[in-house]
Amino acid sequence: MTLLFLIYGLITGSFLNVLVFRLPLGENIAFPSSRCNECGKRLKPAHLIPVVSYMYLKGKCGYCGKRISPQYPIVELANGILYALIYLRFGWSAQSVVFAIAASLFIVIGILDFRYQDIFNVTIWFGLFLSALYLAYQQVNHGKAAENILSGAAGFGLIALVIIITRGGMGWGDAWLLLIIGMLLGPQLTAFAFFIASIAGGMVGTYLLVSRKMGRRDSVPFGPFLILGFYVALLIGKEAVGAYLSAF
Ligand SMILES: [Zn+2]
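Above are the sequence and the zinc ion SMILES. Below is the predicted complex in structure-token form.
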């Protein structure tokens, strides 16, 4: 069953690649079918097998020989591994389905934010819809949606405060993103995700400043770090928070 989740994740991953390339261009995401970005030739079904076809074609287009971005197999593999880990953690459950969809959405948001320093509205709307659906399910089955809504609102407020104080250290996209993460994860795991994001973002930012790859006025997009925090909190957050709390 884990293998099935892995394979399903790989296949979904190749759709994510299409989204990442077509969303910023405002292109139709279902049509036309996959083509080589260089020569425009339609890809054969055999070229669409995730990861395997990239390795078989040695990272080049089967028609014109142009290099294909390694982003394709990396996204497919990352999505497949996340699906497998989510299954191992949450089993065959509604949670697994929601978290797998969220994991995929966050791959798209993370790459787009990294590339364009922007979190696209359509991805935010989808995330809000998904988390609202999840909370409705949680409320009906366990009656505990309120604390998740509060953690999302607190996360949104925290980043809004940072935006107002630093005048642009973070963006409103980050605030919406943490709202979604808060609604999905609840108070403890959201705090943990934010903690991981801040540490990772701080380390990378310091490295870029010290190595002079970035000036003082440049900013690093925070979205990818929030997303890293989400993955870590989702997969090992409960144990980490538990160990931390029992240490006191
Ligand atoms: Zn080509």
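The mean pLDDT is 90.
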